[in-house]
Amino acid sequence: MSAPINTANSPIITPSNDASPASENSSLHSPITPSSLTPITSDIAEASTISPSSIPATSSPLSPVPTPQQPSIHPHNTHPMQTRAKSGITKPKIHPTLLLTHMEPTSVGQALSSPHWFQAMKDEYHALLKNQTWTLVSPSVSRKPIGCKWVFRVKENPDGSINKYKAKLVAKGFHQQAGTDFIETFSPVVKPVTVRTVLTLAVTHKWPIQQIDVNNAFLNGTLEEEVFMLQPPGFEAADKTLVCKLNKAIYGLKQAPRAWFDKLKGSLLHHGFLASKCDPSLFLLHTASLTIMVLVYVDDIIITGNSASFITALIKNLNTDFSLKQLGKLDYFLGIEVTHLPNGSLLLSQTKYLTDLLAKINMLNANGMPTPMVSTSKLSKIGSPVVSDPTQFRSVVGALQYATLTRPEISFSVNKVCQFLSNPLEEHWKAVKRILRYLSGTLHHGLLIQPASPHQPLSLLGFCDADWASDPDDRRSTSGACVFLGPNLISWWSKKQRLVARSSAEAEYRSMAQLAAEILWVQSLLQELKCRLLTPTILCDNLSTVTLAHNPVLHNRTKHMELDIFFVREKVLSKNLIVKHVPAQDQWADLLTKPLSAVKFLPLHDKLRVINKLNLLDAPSVSKGE
Predict the structure, then answer these.
(1) pLDDT digits (tens, 9 = 90+) for 62-73
(2) Partners of 162 in beta bridges
(3) Fewer beta carbons under 10 A from the terminal one: N or C of the chain?
(4) How many angstroms separate the CA atoms of 519 and 524, rounded?
(5) 398: pLDDT confidence band, cut at 50, 70 and 90?
(6) Which among 553, 551, 607 is positioned nearest to 579, based on CA atoms?
(7) pLDDT tens across 321-360, in order?
(8) Residue 459: how many CB atoms within 10 A of its CB?
(9) Spatial strand order in the sheet of 336-340
(10) pTM metric for this prediction
(11) Helix (H) or strand (E) holding 214
């Protein structure tokens, strides 16, 4: 019997996709496939526009040059307007492939004919064989094997250079049958708020921050179900009728992320760690003299704590359980660049991610704008034509959502355009391009993480605001809030409320209730991390809302929202939460609820700790608009 062949490479387009099972059908919200990016060559373009009859039978230097055939015009189009089609002006439409600077093979044949891709496939195949991922068996009569496919990706460095070529064998998990091929599939990943909170503690106490990556992470998970898979294309055994009975999880299986997380969790628990109750992907080790924290996002792991020697020993022990790649000091995590500043601060930015995004839609050299949205903008579901390419709209907006991880000032603008994904119009596309022009002028901006005072309790401060009945289509309000831990912004959001508010006070109070829930969760997390805290404080610019948080007034107008009122008021009366009024000009969350003019936007932009990296490094700015 021939040995099975295996290759595995993660179908990652955004840095967080390792946890998602592969799918044969591309989602409307995913970037456009590489095949759609193939440019039309001059030969093909000529072949599509030259009439066969216009080409002479024999070719000579004196032969006339064939003239391109005019594009067909509808015979009933007698309108006097002269269009490009009538003038014979045509331009091939090229769809960009977002976030992919280098082209990858689109078929197994292409990969096998390329030396570096073939080597990447062999490396993954031998890794699967060494891991005993499957056993070749005769096909079962009662069970239909699932398919598999190769996925190819170029791994890049932050500067855009090629790090390595990766090929992965991905099972077609969408062929799996629930209850037979899988049961449970959920797998947690660390929350961005948790990452920023831990980084705040690390820079405050001057802890080392190490990063590791697990090679072929999903292949370490042990399957509890019996799953059969076809042999990998291009690496079949001599007997092609045999199928692979999977012993270990493989990329693409619905239960693969869960199986890997359970394996890693078991290893960390064996080394004395405990999983956090607030965030299951955070693992803690506390003793009288030791504090170690491990953040897990699929196969990307951050380790920090007050003992560099223990961290080194932990990495060595984990390397005996799994194949690790030690990346050293944290500098690039999930597409986020981490810059270590001389004063001990960190700057989280996405310069490369945004540069790739702008390059793929040909807007890298666009003029910068001072704000991400026009202050008078009122986007609606009606009023302009439908965009010519809805798929591109959805792909760009989906990419912008990931950019909000380090750019809180664009949260409102991105949230607004996300509300029109089902039927995007030209006005919505103009709003998206305005955001991109703003980003082209602020490529080197990022979120600053500063040290707090290590000898004093940390403060937990929240700002909440709402724009009442701001949506012209359904008159729902927009909530916005941000949470500061010490000097650092750790959480923020801009969301349209689910219900129509009957007054501005109601809209503000719903926003406050949501913020109170977030602050109480962060407070619980910090208590698990053994941090000393001051009483959390919420600042709101609506006097009626602040009054409602302390006293049962305005009862007739607030009957339908008493659950939210009781939740916040209970925390206020028990002294677990402080609610104060703040003047409108000092409301930092105003930027998260409505479009602002540059005069109001720029000061709030700085309040949210969004800083130009080039200014901090004392280097001249090279980005437009900065």
Answers:
(1) 334 344 444 455
(2) 156
(3) N
(4) 9
(5) very high
(6) 551
(7) 998 988 889 999 998 999 999 999 999 999 999 999 999 9
(8) 16
(9) 332-333, 336-340, 346-349, 445-449, 610-612
(10) 0.78
(11) strand 209-214
